[in-house]
Each structure stands twice: as structure tokens, then as C-alpha cells.
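Archive entry: two folds, one per protein. Generate the first.
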Amino acid sequence: LSNILISVEKNITLDRGTRIELSCRLDDKYSHLKSLQVTWKRGNETKNTSEKSKLVKLFFLRLRISDNSKLGSYSCTLKGEEEISAIFHLQVPKIEGKEKPIVSYEGDTAVMICKSFGYTPIAWTWYMTNGSEQVRFPSVGQYVIHRISANVTHMKILKLTKEDNGVYWCEAAFELGKSKGKLKLKVLSFMVPLKPFLAIVAEVVILVTIIFLYEMYSKKKEKTEKEFDQIEQL
């Protein structure tokens, strides 16, 4: 074998149990390859159920995905004069949260939204991480949780306090497993936006005080000089 290695990857999203066929097909530019050895694996486990089409250089693996134990990464490796591989990542749908932190102020209301594009979760759960502890939120009191549509959920937090600072997770449950989105909430005191203003005010006060003291000193010096001049004239 030569040292040439060609590899491709593909993500396959599944939200429920199904039958699926993974296939590796050689492009025409690789038609010269002969005596190919085909190996299918899930992780490091070799699968011996590979089949080959009689018409083209097409190799496939048929699977029945019944639970999340069947998810993961499957690979097809063809070995000959060159080594060609394809990796299929079988996964539950990803949840979209928000990359940038949500910034709000004490006493205000914050709204956090999560979406599942193209797939409908069985249920949504909201929780917050506090160190290694997970705090789950029921839809009562300060926390109001709504499922806007089948694929969208939001949590509204009323009357924010400093304790609401932190990392939040929205977790979607699918038939084949769970997926979650991450959101960050930053709660600021009303004093935070006032700090630059107060700093400017302090600088102005100091400057005015310096000018006032300088003027008083100048007037006192001028008065003293006049008194000296009068004494000298006498």
C-alpha cells in the first residue's frame, strides 16, 4: 500500500428509531483500484455485515437504529493501492441556543430562547448549572416557561437579581436521546452604566476645585503684593 489516505466525513441526524443504509461508493477516478479490502467499523468494533453492489463499486451497511446505543461514528475503509475512508456520525438533532451572553439589569426581565430546526422534541427541560449541581426550573413564580411552537421553547425570568447570573441549558428529549443548548445570562447593577458618568463628574469636580483654589491663591497673592507696595511707599 502507498501512504495516500483520502478521508471524508458526514453527519447524519436522527430523532427517532429507523432503518438506515450507509454506503461508500468509489468515484470514477478510482476505478483503476483492484482487489479492495472493505472494513466497516463502529468506533473500534468491526462490523461484518457489509454488502457489495454487483453493478458499481458500492459498499453499504444496513442498520436498524432502535435506541441511542446504536448512535455514534461508523466508518467505511477501502484498502488497495490507496486507502480511502468515510466516517458517518449518527447523532440526535442539535439545539440552537445563543453564543453571546444575554445582558440585562437587576429588576428587569430576561427571555432566553432555544430552537430545534426541522425536528420536534418530545419534551423540553430548562436547568442551570451551579458548579457540579444542576438546578431544574419549574414553570412557576419568577420563572415562566413556554413552548412557543413544537420546535421552540423560551424561559422568561422576572425581576432579575444577581443570583440569576450564570449558565443555563435547554434540553430537548427525542426518542433516540437528549440534546441541549447553552445560554449565558449576565445580570448587571444599575450602577454599572453610571460608573463612567460618575467618573467624569468626579474629574470635573476636582478640576473646578483646583481652579477655584488657584483663583483664591491668586487673589490672596495679589492682595498681599498690594499691601507690600503700600508699606514700601510709606
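Generate the second and append.
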Amino acid sequence: MGAGHGHGHAGSRHRWRLAVAFGLVAAFFVVELVVGIVSGSLALISDAGHMAADVVALGAALVATKIATRPDDSGRRTYGSYRAEVFASGFTVLIMLGVSVYVVVEALRRFGEPVEVASGPMLVVGGIGLVVNLVCLALLRGGAQESINVKGAYVEVVADAAGSVGVIVAGVLVAVTGIAQADTVVAVAIGIFVAVRAVVLGREVLAVLGQHAPVGLDLDAVVRDLEAVAGVAEVHDLHAWTLTSGMNVATAHLVVGVGADAQAVLEGAQTTLREVHGIEHATLQVEVTPARECRAATW
């Protein structure tokens, strides 16, 4: 039984970036959590929570890229396992939202309570964390535009970089003003920022899972270009969606004129979709007249 076509994809090309970032973040997470607990800084603990989310998100991204390239021996996954990367991005969104909720709830609980925060450790660890995050951003940026999986990890690290900046700001405010609640206020700001980033990424994930038309693809233009192919009289039942980052697929029915060369029409349509619209995998059906089943279809 045929299993689906094999494709190269963006996530696997950037797996080494994920691996290096994973190692850096995992090492720093332990340091930040310990210092946060010892110093009593909620900003540090919240940033450590984001780091923990990073560790899980990067680990999930690494596993997903491995699963995505695994051959299908069952014959059931005709599109392969590429969607594993999209699921990993969705998992990252849930982690980010969970951490944000925890930080905001904990911050609200702290308001009005006497809090002691050691600003020195906050500044040192916040500075180190910012450096670690900037290195990870430089690593992941190269793949964030190509892979939603890598983008999920990149967005998570962006949030952590903002968290590190927040920790530094909180440390300075506590040191200068002596007001420990500044730490709590900054923690809330970090939590809200992370939640907003998570929602933006979550919308992209849902668009892929909902099989929406690929971002930037003009379906009307696709129809016009296909109808411009020699021999094509009409195009209908066009569907286009994203399988995973960098892998757009489509199906369509092409009604050809009398005497048209069906094979030439197919080749011309495939070339148009590939070279003009970036759709390399398209399943096209050629019809002399619109099939009765097409006219009777209700979706």
C-alpha cells in the first residue's frame, strides 16, 4: 500500500538550532530557578517559569522534527507525520498561556503583602538570562520564517528575552526605590506580554489545523492563472491548505476544451501552481465536462 510522498521540510533543516538552544536554556533554567527562590523575586521565578516552558517547548519541537521525518510503515498516514510540528507549536502555546496565568495569579496574591526581594541576584541573573536568550534568538531566527515549529520556539524565547529585560528593570527599581512591589508589577507585565504572544501564535496554529488557505495565497489569482493554462476552460472545486510550514498543497478539477491534450494541461497546471504560487504538491482532476458528482456536491 502506498504511503504518501516524501518531502524535505523546513523544520528538519533547522533541528541543530533547536538542539543548541535547548541545551543553553535548560542549563540556565536551573540557575535562575534556584536564585529566584533564594532571592524571593517573583520576577525571577516567573522568568524561570518561562524558561521551563522553553525547555519543554524546545524539547517538543526537537521530538516533532524527528517524528516528521520518520517514514510511515503503517501505510495509514498518507500525508506523513509532518503535522507533528504544528501540534508541537500548539503545545508551546498552551505552556505559554499556563505560565502567564500562574504568574498573574501569584502576583495578584502578593499585592498588599510584605515582600522582601534581593535586587543584586536579580540584576546578575537577569543579565545572564538576557545574553542566553539573545544567543538563542540568533540561532532560531534563521528558521522562524520557514517553520511554524521553529517559530513557536522563537516566539517563546522572545518572550523570555522580554522577561529577562523585565527582571533587570525590576532589580533596578527595587535597588533604587526600595519598593519590593516593583518586582510584582514587572512580573504581571511579563505575564501579559507572554499571553499576547501566545495568542498570536495560537491563531496561526489554528489556521493550519483548520486547513485555511495558506497565508498570502490569493485563491482568485490561482483560479485565473489555472484558467490561463492552454486547454483549460474552467476551474472548480479548488481547495488549498498548509500541511506544515513550507508545504502547501492543493486539489482542483480542471474542465478542458474539446481536443485539448489532458497530459499537457496537467503539466501546465502543475508548473503554474509550483512556480507562481509555491504549491509543489497538487492533485488535479481533468474533466471534459463538469462531472455530475461535482454539480451535486454540497460542500
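Annotation attached to the second fold: Residues 1-9 have pLDDT under 50 and may be disordered. The domain at 10-209 is CATH 1.20.1510.10 (Alpha-lytic protease prodomain-like).
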